[in-house]
Amino acid sequence: MWWAQQIGDYTLADCTPALIAEARDKLARTPTHRGPTTKPATQVRYLAALSHAFTVAVNEWGWIEDNPVRKITQPKEPRDGVRFLSDEERDRLLTACREPPRRHLYPVVVLALSTGMRAREITGLTWPRVDLQQRRILLEDTKNGERRVVPIVGHALDRLREHGKVRRLDTDLVFPGPRKPEQPVELRQAFLSALVKAGIEDFRFYDLRHSAASYLAMNGASLAEIAEVLGNKTLQMVKRYAHLSGAHTAGVVERMNAAIFGNGARVWLPSSQRFQTALWYLA
User: Fold this and answer.
1) Which of 102, 89, 107 is nearest to 215 (CA)?
2) Conformation bin of residue 62: beta by default, left when phi > 0, alpha when psi is -120 to 50
3) What is the extent of the structural domain holding 106?
4) How far, in Å, CA of 246 to CA of 43, rounded?
5) In a domain, 76, yes or no
6) HSE on the CB side for 178, CA within 13 Å?
7) Kind and range of the H or E element at 19?
8) The pTM is what?
9) Single residue among 38, 71, 104 that ends a domain in this structure
């Protein structure tokens, strides 16, 4: 919609790199509900959507010769840390999600933290895709277009079982809307309310996925294992969690040295990397 408002009146021939760059700069100055300007990450996603449209016009329809978005400078996203919930924040958020009128949010957040599933994957989930006996969820409609089997264990499994006991019979949706059961429940306002109640700032629903991946890394999962759980095709997307898996990496090195030089070769770990607790959902 934003691009349609900015360049919708131009012909494809008039959509030059200069025009796209001008719109890019305007987007960068556009205020949002989160701040006075649009963040670079948002600008990159807007440009990616426009670039895809131009790519289709070039490769499939032959309407233009080249993609003008490829010729402009992309905004640089800051290389900041991954935002994930601390133990205290997680406890406060889950407590807030148990309180009315947000009780429907609790199993949703538990499932997101337990599996790393995206909001759309959770809200679009149907009971035929949930196998409580085999303790797994089969996702058909994923972001990368591939089927994914998601294990459900521990507290998340218990919550889904309890949730299933009071499921509605007029819809297959696991989390239907209260007034329109044929549509998924709306999470945005309830989640924002829970964040305020819990006193948590600078956090999005998508960061629950980051939290799940971070917990996996801190409890010894390799990058390949994290990628498999999250459904990422490559390791590139999960490299951001590499610094959290220092204990696992050191353990691999220790086992290799023990095999070569004997059990006397040990790798010392600082106390900050001695992760002694596992997540309840991995127990």
Assistant:
1) 89
2) left
3) 81-283
4) 33
5) no
6) 7
7) helix 17-28
8) 0.63
9) 71
Mean pLDDT of 221-239: 81
**Residue at token pair 């290389």:** 79
Q: How many whole angstroms separate alpha carbon 84 and alpha carbon 111?
A: 15
DSSP 192-206: HHHHHHHT--S--TT
List, as own/partner pairs, every contact residues 145-148 make where C-beta atoms lie below 8 angstroms and the sequence separation is at least 24, other chains included: 146/231, 146/233, 148/231
Could you give the angle at the alpha carbon of 122 between the alpha carbons of 121 and 128, nearest 5°?
Answer: 90
- Tell me, yes or no, whether 104 and 182 share the same domain: yes
Sheet containing 148-151: give its strands across. 130-131, 136-139, 148-151
**The domain spanning residue 86 has which CATH number?**
1.10.443.10
Cβ atoms of residues 125 and 137 within 8 Å: yes
Quick: pLDDT tens for 116-144: 999 999 999 999 999 999 999 999 877 77
C-alpha R_g of the chain: 23
* Closest-CA residue to 132 (of 157, 115, 162): 157
Q: What is the pLDDT of residues 81-121, one digit of tens each?
A: 678 899 999 999 999 999 988 888 999 999 999 999 999 99
At 53-82, the pLDDT tens digits run 999 999 999 999 999 999 999 888 665 567
